[in-house]
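Q: Could you write out the predicted structure for this multi-component system? I'm mainly interested in how the pieces pack against one another.
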Amino acid sequence: MDLPCGTRNYDYARDMAVLRTRTHWALFIALLVIVFTAPLYLSRSSLSIANLIGITIIAVTGLNILIGYCGQLSIGHAGFMAVGAYTTAIFTSKLGIPFPISLICSGLSAGLIGIIFGLPSVRVKGFYLAITTIAAQFIIIWVINHWGSATGGFVGISVPTASIGGLEFDTDARQFYLIMVVTSLCLFFAKSIARGRIGRAFVAIRDNDLAAQVMGINLTYYKLLAFFIGCFLAGIAGALFAHWVGFMNAESFTLTDSILFIGMVVIGGLGTTIGPILGVVAIRVLQDRLIYFSPALESAFPALPSGFTVGIGPIVFGLVIILFLILEPRGLAHRWMLFKAAYRLWPFSY
Amino acid sequence: MAELLQYVVTGIAVGMVYALIALGFALIWKSSSVANLALGQLVLISSWFTYGMLVQVGLPYWIGLLLTIVFAVFLGWSIERFTLRPLIAQPILSLITVTLGVGYFLEGLVSFIWPTSVAALPHLFPKEPVHIGPAVVSQEYLWAAGISLALFGMLSLFFKYHKMGIAMRATADDQLAVQACGVPVTSVFSMSWMFACVVAAVGGVLISLIGGITYGLVETGLKSFSVVILGGLDSFIGCMVAGPIIGLAENLGGGYLTPIIGPGIKDIIPFIIIIIVMVIKPFGLFGEERIERI
């Protein structure tokens, strides 16, 4: 990535650092302060949206590793999230396993299921893989709905609040801290993977998997690893979601959600670390505003059809996905890069 | 025995409709290598449109069905013109994702205009069930199979003899060469989308005559992907062979496995078949195995 003028690297450690300049550090600390003091000044409803945003960022970051870095399309990500959510629900409520362990276990179980459904990716790609993952979504949801003794079936399952060593995360503010800490860790994890050997192998596979194989990259290993990491993060997100909502059934993880996740990755920018954050925040805030404004609009204009409130969401998101793909295929992250370049060069923009 | 025969007949009939919908997919894939994941929503919206014309507006059948066809043609044209054409020569990921976006948009449009989630089309065919040996089958199934077969035959003839059909097959074979020969490739793409939407509409009407209009129609569209996968992506014959196989598997499995495994297994069988085919023979029964070069 381009650096501001005058940034020189005198040793390898500094060359590899994520945060390079003083401005980076200052902005980073300011961001941390803003995020972690948010419960002090955000209202309850905004806080719960912030929680949902944090959870979604984890899932979408996982999806971004899969789609953006490794080029393997997955349209079943909500299904993998459901695997994580139900794992933690069963572990904490029925087996009494402490939350931190069950959080890791739900990531692992979602990752394993991801590997199973990712197996066809060794031989096929593109559309074939898309269909396989759609099938995964339906099969996972069917199993959840019909394995009533463990998952509560259609009725749903209640999940105890998360607690670490006696500290209960029972209010929105406490959950906010938990979710933000896990989200930050996951983002750092994703960034490290993307920067390292694994990430470069993924990018090589995305750009041309045959050429990558010729260069000595073990395709089977790396493709399945991409599925494992992507679904691991989805599982973590699902587990946090389960503890956050407290009661859920398979209705919380639909194919529509999976498509929306892909939309978020596309809108944010494929194959960037900042992309998922921008995409998720944009879509979730838009979603919240739509829910907030559409009943008001409907009562103000009685001429609108009665399905306005239900239908406007998908219409807007579908349009946003299409328009972004046509007009700005590199997503919001690209805009952010342009902005960064512009302010670094200001006032001499050349 | 009567049970078995019943499952077989309904399975083959439903499978024919799946095959018809799948044909629309294969058409687009062959000519422009775009994977149309909005298939389910296309089925859904054209069924609702038919409902709107026949029941809400109250038009006579033949006008209503004709309008549905016109609507499907328009839908296909506008999808190709406004979403796919700006994306020509983009990576396959964008092409798949944009059809997902289109599907999402159409789903919103349906719940926007028709907020009720369930409806039934009026009976277009006589109500008396038909007795085939010991089995009793309602006429919709037979009509569905018949119409699907007839359409398939007509489309095959079209591709074999009509100038546009030949152009479409040629485009599927080699886009560059065809363009050099002066065939307008963009209008071929446009044409293939129109055809796909029309067959999806016909398939949707036939399926909703059997089972009513619900959101399950989206799943019906997704199920026809299993037909495409099993038959091979770029093969019309594959669709016609794999369709009844999927329909049979679904109905026989649904009939005999439900007491053992539990309800709902019927809806999941096509997806299990997808996974199995993917692992064993990813290019399907009749699909062309593509050998890539660097």
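A: Regarding packing and overall arrangement: Residues 145 and 153 of chain A are 4 Å apart (CA to CA).
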